[in-house]
Amino acid sequence: MRSWSRLRRFVSRALAPERAERELDEELQAYVELLSSEKAAQGLSPEQARRAALLEVGGVEQVKEEVRGARFGSWLEDAARDLRHGARLLARTPGFTLAAVAALALGIGAATVIFSAVDAVLLKPLPYVDPERLVVVLHEGRHPVAPSTFEALRRDGRSFDAVGVAEFWRPNLASAGAAETVLGLRLTASTMELTGGRPLLGRLLRSEDEEEDVVLLSHGLWQRQFAGDSEILGRSVRLDGIPRVVIGVMPPGFDFPPFWARGAELWAPLPLRERRESDGRSLRLFARLAPETSLAEARSELATLVARAERERPGEMRGLAVVPLADMVVRNVRPALWALLGAVGLLLLIACANVAHMLLARAAGRAREMALRHALGAGRTRVLRQLLTESALLAGLGSAAGIGLAFIGARLLVAWRPASVPRIETLSLDLRVLAVAVAASLACGLAFGLAPALQAVRRDLVGGLRQGERGSSEDPGRRRVRSALVASEVALALVLLVGAGLLIRTFAALQAIDPGFDPKGVLTMVVSLSGSERSAPGRRAAFFQEALERLRALPGVEAASAINHLPMGGDLWGLGFHVRGRPLPAPGERPAAAYRVVMPGYFDAMRLALVRGRDFDEHDVLGRPGVIVVNEAMARSQWSGEDPLGSAMTLGDPADPDAEWLSVVGVAEDAVRDEWAAEPAPEIYLPYLQSRSYLEEAGGHLEYLSFVLRTGGDVTALAPAARGAVHSLARDAAIADLHPMEELVAQGLAEPRLYLILLASFAAVALALAAVGIYGVVSHGVSRRRQELAIRMALGARSGELLRLVLRQGMATVSVGLGAGLVGALALGTTLRSLLYGVEPGDPLTLAAVVATLGAVALAATYVPARRAVALRALEELRHE
């Protein structure tokens, strides 16, 4: 009952605070009157009696404060009062409020966006069952494996609960008389089961489906091509001309695998019984660790299996590595995202430091107010709580504005995302991210509000009253705190600027890379005949040759040719080789090179220089001596300064008496392959018209070519005519990836460009905040020293001397920050090492340029208030004092 009564009184006070205060005042006045009557009865005059009563009570306002503090729920009333007071105070100083909120909004908004990206890409678990137990087994942790490797692990691997493989697949889907190339996978039933995914409609693949023509559709393809037809199950769709029965539709957002072939829209059985070991390595192997089995144990067992296979079949399983699936997904972007999160953390600290010395400057003007509060009975804890409430309110406003900016920034980041950053499309400001943003804002409020609040409550009464006098000098303790904050701002800004400078140097070095070919003015498109009447081996080559002639005849086309896989725009396949006259390699140690199959005129169309020898021509056909072109990296590695022209090499078994030997007729300049900044590696070019498999065999990867058309006009304007020329020959030919070659090059630089834009933006904001902070500190310091400077001028000090004095004192603090920042910048450079290209982390040119830039900005920010200070007229200033 007592608790209920206290709660009822609390609610009554909350609903009618004026009445509660009036009742408290009446009760206290009645008590004072009662004491006065008692004192008067003892013989004191009415005035003496009232004075004695007030002295005994100890001060009406103090007693009221004690009563309020003893009430049930008083802390809520105090908090509400503090919030109202803080809101009124911020409203009376709109300039200060807007500046502080803007600084915090930039810091919190940027931090929220980058944390949401880190959360989406690195922290959220993969959307599969027990994703931490999913691993991949690949050569060197990235290259595909052979069917025999899958069989060995499925048969002998005790560390794996389940094992499956998948293979890249790009079939043509027949639709309304045309064909669309769709990204898909052929895989074993166990591969899909590893994910734990459940179809939206129908069922998953089963082991008995291996020999069946069935297919699973993605939700997106189901909606796009079949309008979400609920009767899709059991229907046949033609893929590469073969009817396949739809057995299921996967739910929205399902994407497997999450690396290598992201965005697959079809999943079909993989008939491994048809595979021969000579088919090479084309499979990605996935597995789930057995219960109670650690990653280290799985790696140990795999090492044992590899050693056993090395004795029986040398080279077959050499270099196999077990990698967690989650690591495989983010291995290329993890360092960059953590570095960006650290950078935005530094930006947030700079914003906090900026607001902290703004609060310190304002606290100097409130010294008399704080002293009066103490004189009226407010305790240090009460004043501290009020000041921290004001800081929390400021942080709340900054957080609200920052989250608003974060929503905009998140949308822009998703819109500008490079294709190489996985899962970034799932970025969203969900409750987890918003909770972190709010927590960060509260931490910021405590961080930037604590120092000014502690400075305010440490003052003595008389000193506080004197500090409010005009022209008095600034408290040394406050000055030291402000100097420390400015030095920290300078240090943190320098770290960010150095990081941005290193990435600028890196991006410049990347742009300076010569890809070996000229992408300007080149239109590319992939033409696939899979499922078409013209796909038969006897008709395929004739179609591609005729299509090439029609494309060359288009207005504006200067050169045209075709290749199996474009550099930077297709798969990278390799073949083993042997140069005649060299010792036969040991089993499993045969060298390999990436290979390209090209039509005549490819080097001219791409402006890929032949540094020696000749291009392929119409005479390089079956029945004529086989020829081959190698790149410079191949020439260096195999001929070591000798002229490779005329040398013979085979792609088959050199011990086979029927092996086909090819004569090297040309050496091409090194070209960028799949990674823009990768070192050149051996590469060979084969003439399409001499490649027996492309001319005489069937298979999806043999039935398409990538055409390249060079024009002197508008590349995009050529696209409709190029599409029409191909469809005039075969309406059911599928055309995909129709875009300028420059787009492929831009994609290769998209990821470093994004990191550069983000870090440079953070650095620019940090530089601006640091400049504002330095200006504010020096300006405030000068305003507090006007009397001192006026006295110096009255005693004969020259303007130049005073200017140097103020500049020296201001730049001394900046110098400390620059020194500390250099140490941090060197540490940051080491962290960014994996993102750098063509520049070292401690690059002296970058460090010198950043120090000079930041020093110049700091000098300008110091000079303006210093110059204004020495322009004071001493006599007038002293007279005003």
Topology:
Elements: H1 2-15, H2 17-41, H3 46-57, H4 60-70, H5 74-92, H6 94-123, E1 134-139, H7 147-156, E2 160-169, E3 172-175, E4 178-181, E5 184-187, H8 189-195, E6 201-202, E7 214-217, H9 219-226, E8 236-239, E9 242-249, E10 266-269, E11 284-289, H10 295-312, E12 320-324, H11 325-330, H12 334-365, H13 367-375, H14 380-415, H15 431-457, H16 461-467, H17 476-511, E13 522-528, H18 537-552, E14 557-563, E15 574-576, E16 578-579, E17 592-598, H19 602-606, E18 610-613, E19 627-631, H20 632-639, E20 648-650, E21 661-668, E22 683-687, H21 692-696, E23 704-711, H22 715-727, E24 734-740, H23 741-784, H24 786-794, H25 799-831, H26 844-870, H27 874-880
Parallel strand pairs: 5-10, 7-9, 17-22, 19-21
Antiparallel strand pairs: 1-11, 1-12, 2-5, 2-11, 3-4, 6-9, 7-10, 8-9, 13-23, 13-24, 14-23, 15-17, 16-20, 18-21, 19-22, 20-21
